[in-house]
Amino acid sequence: MALIPTTILTGFLGAGKTTLLNRILQEDHGMRIAVIENEFGQENIDNEILVQDSNEHIIEMNNGCICCTVRGDLIVGLTELARKRDAGLLAFDRVVIETTGLANPGPVAQTFFVDEEVGSHYMLDAIITVVDARHAMKQLDEYEEAQRQVGFADKLLLSKTDLVSEDDVAALTRRLKRINPRAPIAKVDFGRAPLTEVLDIRGFNLNEKLELDPDFLATETAHVHDHDHAHEHEHGQEHEHAHEHTEACATDCGHADHHHAQHSDDIAAFVFKSTQPFDSAKLDEFLGGLVQVYGPRMLRYKGVLLMQGAERKVVFQGVHQLMGSDLGAKWGDNEVRGSKMVFIGKNLPKDIFIRGLEQCLV
Q1: CB neighbour burial string for 124-162, b if at least 16 within 10 angstroms, e if fewer
Q2: Which DSSP string corresponds to 120-139?
Q3: Beta strands at 94-99 and 66-71: parallel, antiparallel or unpaired
Q4: CB 201 within 8 Å of CB 154
Q5: What is the pLDDT of residue 118?
Q6: What interhelical angle do 144-152 and 105-114 show, nearest 10?
């Protein structure tokens, strides 16, 4: 039986997750979705549609959606839903998990990799983070949870953009791209985002379609500075075996950004690129050491790798200490071969990462 695609919906308090969730539960979209409210603690769900009575934790909606409240162990809740589905007691095709506003999405994502039972039934499709355009700058300044939610995201949805100026939206967008350059950003209007913006993103899966997200390095031309080369080489005339590493825009970027000086986020991203192939054994050993030492601070990391002697691309990604890789498509005859990796984390020692990766090159 095919794995059940699952979306994690996160975002800081008041960002609009519940509004978006209401729409999923009410709209006549023809999808059979199980929505899980992942509740930690005794907070009531701020949504009259969702179940308030902890004794009745599953309710079926008119449009075929199922709503379920999990207070405590998410593994138990997911396993119970799968058991009832297998037994024909519940019918659903996908799952959306809404986290609490102060939740770190990391442990929720890890659930899909650390538990064999969950992994045998479910496939993590993407982490979607809703960002409150009116309050996000202050929240990112004051709360690490808000930074983590952005850092983990496979896609960012901006809410309440009608309440702020275009300049404010642009400044926030630049900051979000500094924290997480690989997550596409879209605006949502009171939760009326097309479901295609939320479901079937395939942002988390290890497969050939995940070769590179469209916005994986989108900030590079406008918001990134190059540490190795003062000028781009024209017509692709790079130094032989050149490698370069870039990081999200810092205060010394050429463009004026009056907002950035006020904001120093603990969570940030940097990118490593190289046209030289990796030595597989050296890279495995180095990455294994990295996640042992820095895993708790490594929110998300992902890349397409050129390995020595390999005719196929290697796609890799991870969350904290959990890391996986898969074979991607074959390198094209006229394709420029090279590795591109992005690391998103809290106060990661970029120089150690970059130097270590360089030493793994052939």
Answers
A1: bbbbbbbbbbbbbbebbeeeebbbbbbbbbbbbbbbbbe
A2: HHEEEEEEEEEEETTTHHHH
A3: unpaired
A4: yes
A5: 92
A6: 40
Contact between 69 and 57 (Cβ < 8 Å): yes
What residues have CB less than 8 Å from 38, skipping those under 6 apart?
70, 74, 77, 97, 98, 99, 100, 103, 108
pLDDT of residue 293: 94
At which residue do the structure tokens 């009745």 appear? Answer: 56
Predicted TM-score of the model (pTM): 0.70
- Residue 221 CA to residue 19 CA, distance in Å, equals 35
Cα separation, 26 vs 316, whole angstroms: 37
Dist CA 302 CA 295 (whole Å): 14
Q: What is the model's pLDDT at position 22?
A: 81
Task: Judge residue 31's burial from the number of C-beta atoms within 10 Å of its C-beta, 0-12 exposed, 13-18 middle, 19 or more buried.
Answer: middle
The pLDDT, as a whole number, for residue 53 is 40
Looking at residue 258, what is its pLDDT? 37
* pLDDT score of 206: 55
Pick from 144, 173, 145, 171: nearest CA to 157:
173
Total H helices, total E strands in the chain: 10, 15
Q: pLDDT under 50 in the chain at which residues?
A: 40-56, 207-262
- 8 A C-beta contact, residue 34 and residue 96: yes
| Amino acid letter, residue 227 | H
Structural tokens at position 68: 């379920």
**Residue 31 has what pLDDT?**
85
Predicted local confidence at residue 139, as pLDDT:
93
C-alpha distances out from residue 221 to 181, 224, 226, Å? 12, 6, 10
CB atoms within 10 A of CB 266: 14
Q: What is the pLDDT of residue 209?
A: 37
Task: Give the model confidence (pLDDT) of 110-128 as tens digits.
Answer: 888 888 899 999 999 999 9
